[in-house]
Amino acid sequence: MLASLRSRCSSLPSHFTSPPLPSLLDQSWKLGFPASSRLFASSPSFSSAAGSYEVLTVPEVEKILADVKADNVIVIPTQNQCCWADFTIIATGRSDWHLKNIAQALIYRAKQKQIGAKHVKLPSVQGYNSKWIVIDYGKFVVHALDEKARVYFNLESLWTAEASTNDNSDKVGDDGLGFLVDKS
């Protein structure tokens, strides 16, 4: 078994076995981590000799969200406002099951698009068992929230000039998490 692992390691391309270039080490990652850690991170986009390759595009994500009947889908260009994503996509799910279905549909389509590829790149998913699921594709981030969380967090106001003047604190309890409690 050790021999087979060694043979696999010896057949890896040189950029996996050789140390990172000094020019990469001089650059800092956008969030403050050293550039060498980027080599080991799973990112849904990567560069190849033929050019840049994206797992899914924004129009494909919009179509998937329409297919799973996500409500109130908004695509916000954020390339001039932040350095970690070019687009923020916000969608509303009607239930916990619907939120999970949105995330599963996006992941499934990313897998299907890469059938036969040498390296499969999957998005990062956070909050899978909550009222707010974040799917990070690298160039864009999808936020799937339930209706109460969407109203409470009002993510659109963070990225658009039309910031809401509504005060959300009077809609919830003293702890600020009133949207999580079903008061019906």
UniProtKB/TrEMBL annotation:
<keyword id="KW-0496">Mitochondrion</keyword>
<dbReference type="GO" id="GO:0043023">
    <property type="term" value="F:ribosomal large subunit binding"/>
</dbReference>
<protein>
    <recommendedName>
        <fullName>Protein Iojap-related, mitochondrial</fullName>
    </recommendedName>
</protein>
<dbReference type="GO" id="GO:0090071">
    <property type="term" value="P:negative regulation of ribosome biogenesis"/>
</dbReference>
<dbReference type="InterPro" id="IPR004394">
    <property type="entry name" value="Iojap/RsfS/C7orf30"/>
</dbReference>
<dbReference type="GO" id="GO:0005739">
    <property type="term" value="C:mitochondrion"/>
</dbReference>
<dbReference type="GO" id="GO:0017148">
    <property type="term" value="P:negative regulation of translation"/>
</dbReference>
<comment type="similarity">
    <text>Belongs to the Iojap/RsfS family.</text>
</comment>
<dbReference type="Pfam" id="PF02410">
    <property type="entry name" value="RsfS"/>
</dbReference>
<dbReference type="InterPro" id="IPR043519">
    <property type="entry name" value="NT_sf"/>
</dbReference>
